[in-house]
């Protein structure tokens, strides 16, 4: 069995097209097909449903892909570790992030890059939590900044960075209320994130818990769009406090902490549970340990 054959199978499973998978592997389509056939011969099971075009993987093929992804990830981690012993950490760190965690990612990349000048960083932002889990399990991400996963999500390591809390961003200037209840916030002309996004689902669960289901006038799947809408002064929004450190408080708006109940959510660094920990993953963990993310996000900015 050759690692190249495993690469062919993983590429085909990801791209789901023989010709484009071959192109991604820099080989001809016959070479890719022959490599997969040899893998099938060695394992004595069919891995690919064949027809005039790619029709999917067999159940055996789906399992082999999981093993192949793990083997190839360990191969890459071994190369990184050996390279680090010789010249320091190199390669590309791939970080995923849910939209609400963009501030924390920025606080991690600076110390990581300072400590590892030969390494680069690729940030995949605006991912949904389910997409992050899938990419971590497929070894398409090295780490992610996201919400704490549920107890059913095994094989992952979660390192808390900070507790997300929520504020109402609404029109107003001068001395406003020191706090506001969720029920009163539900009566505002709200602009919120898309209901499919986990950050929005956290808010919906609080509104439902207090018996005040929310009906926003405007919904968007973009943080930048949400702030652009709020800046008009026509809409209010419930946002994580960490966002304000990136986008600021629009002129003519005020920030009011939400209470009754005070609700928080753990946001942290999520990595595949692997031993040994890959070099770049460990370097990110080390950067997180000294970044003091929670302390940096503690204060609430004021309107500019």
Describe this structure in words.
- The protein has 304 residues and is α/β, with parallel strands linked by helices.
- 44% of the residues lie in helices and 20% in strands.
- The protein is built from twelve helices and ten strands.
- The strands form two sheets. Strands 1, 2, 3, 4, 5, 8, 9 and 10 form an eight-stranded mixed sheet that branches. The protein has a two-stranded parallel ribbon with strand order 6-7.
- Helix 1 packs across helix 2, helix 1 packs across helix 3 and helix 2 crosses helix 3.
- The longest helix has 29 residues.
- The radius of gyration is 23 Å and the shape is elongated.
- The relative contact order is 0.15.
- The model has no long low-confidence stretch (mean pLDDT 89).
End-to-end separation: 62 Å
Total DSSP helices: 12
Report the sheet-strand fraction: 15-25%
Listing every helix as H and every strand as E from the N terminus to the C terminus, the arrangement reads HHHHEHEHEEEHEHEHEHEEHH
- Mean pLDDT value: 89
Largest sheet: 8 strands, mixed
Radius of gyration: 23 Å
Poorly predicted runs of 5 or more residues:
none
Beta strands, count: 10
Structural class: alpha/beta
Helix content: 40-55%
Oligomerization: single chain
Shape: elongated
Secondary structure layout:
Layout: H1 3-15, H2 18-24, H3 29-43, H4 59-87, E1 91-97, H5 102-115, E2 119-124, H6 129-137, E3 143-147, E4 156-171, E5 180-181, H7 182-186, E6 191-193, H8 198-209, E7 218-220, H9 223-231, E8 237-240, H10 244-247, E9 253-259, E10 264-272, H11 279-291, H12 293-296
Parallel strand pairs: 1-2, 1-3, 5-9, 6-7
Antiparallel strand pairs: 3-10, 4-8, 4-9, 4-10
Helix pairs in contact: 1-2, 1-3, 1-4, 2-3, 5-11
